[in-house]
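User: Hi! I'm working on a homework problem where we have to compare a predicted structure to a textbook description. Could you give me the structure for the chain below?
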Amino acid sequence: VLLVESGGGSLQSGGSLRLSCTASGSTYSSDCLAWFRQAPGKEREGVASIDAHGTTTYANSVKGRFNISQDSTDENILYLQMDNLTPEDTAMYFCAHSVWRCTWDAKRFSYWGQGTQVTVSS
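Assistant: Happy to help. Predicted structure tokens:
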């Protein structure tokens, strides 16, 4: 599985971005697709996930602001809509694929994209 993210950028606090992740290869028979992020000097953390049944889960820090979804016509495309961004959301964002049930344990994810940078200024 090859995952490629896009959509990152620099913007001011309060703005919105939509990240995309396009998968190729043996795709989306997974039990879980997720977005993680990693800020400089910090551990990678789970942000949002969606399982094979469409059940979504969000980190407390992004609930009500972020939305994870799959494209309605192409299930190989995963989105992360991010609204009301703050400087604390600044990080490299990664999409990930797992054949296991959704979890925030990054070790359960076998495939990762290269990441897309999101920088939010105050």
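For your comparison, note the following. Residues 4 and 114 are 7 Å apart (CA to CA). DSSP finds no helices and eleven strands in the chain. Good luck with the assignment!
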